[in-house]
Design brief:
Helix content: 55-70%
Strand content: under 5%
Number of domains: 1
Low-confidence stretches: none
Oligomer: single chain
Distance between the termini: 30 Å
Largest sheet: none
Structural class: mainly alpha
Length: 73
């Protein structure tokens, strides 16, 4: 799922860059608006990359919730 969202983020970034270069009304919006949109797509991609490469910590809790053993934390 994260890979699909990463592809969407990269596609959105590409579409915005292309649209800002070709559409006259978007070119007139200014650099601050463009930077904000670029930061949105880049941040979305970074969040996806974080969750793709984040390692899941193993839990030491017992599988059976009725077990008398205490979980080691």
């Amino acid at each position: 799922m994260n890979i699909v969202l990463l592809v969407i983020a990269l596609g959105g970034l590409y579409y915005c860059i292309d649209d800002f270069k070709t559409d006259l009304s978007h070119r007139l919006l200014g650099h601050r608006f463009h930077y904000g949109v670029y930061l949105f797509w880049i941040q979305w991609a970074m969040i996806c990359l974080f969750f793709i490469f984040a390692r899941k910590k193993p839990t030491n809790f017992p599988i059976d919730p009725n077990s008398k053993e205490k979980a080691v934390v």
